[in-house]
Amino acid sequence: MHVERRSRPDRAKAIAVNAGLVLLETAGREAAATFLEDAGVPLPVIARVLSEPDRRRAEDLR
């Protein structure tokens, strides 16, 4: 059974994800991915937020 969480319990990672999405738009995918990895965001989350905008959480930048 897969339970999808709709909120991120780690506020620091939530801020990092939003900053990574800004970097995606301004500096590109590689810069965003590197930033997110350095911020400790798990690789599956990085892949999801950078590659699947329809699956981003509501509180993530769109």
What does this structure look like?
The structure is a single chain. The chain is an all-alpha fold. The longest helix is centred in the N-terminal third of the chain and has 16 residues, at 11-26. It has three helices and no strands. The radius of gyration is 11 Å and the shape is globular. Helix content is 56%, strand content 0%. The chain has helices spanning 11-26, 29-38, 43-51. It starts with 10 loop residues before the first helix and ends in an 11-residue tail after the last helix. α1 runs antiparallel to α2 and α2 runs antiparallel to α3.
- Average pLDDT, rounded to a whole number, is 85
User: What percentage of residues falls in helices of 4 or more residues?
Assistant: 55-70%
Order of H and E elements: HHH
The helix count comes to 3
> Which consecutive residue ranges, at least 5 long each, have pLDDT under 50?
none
Shape descriptor reads globular
Strand content: under 5%
The biggest sheet, with number of strands, parallel, antiparallel or mixed sense and barrel status, is: none
Computed Rg: 11 Å
* Total number of beta strands: 0
Distance between the termini: 28 Å
SSE class: mainly alpha
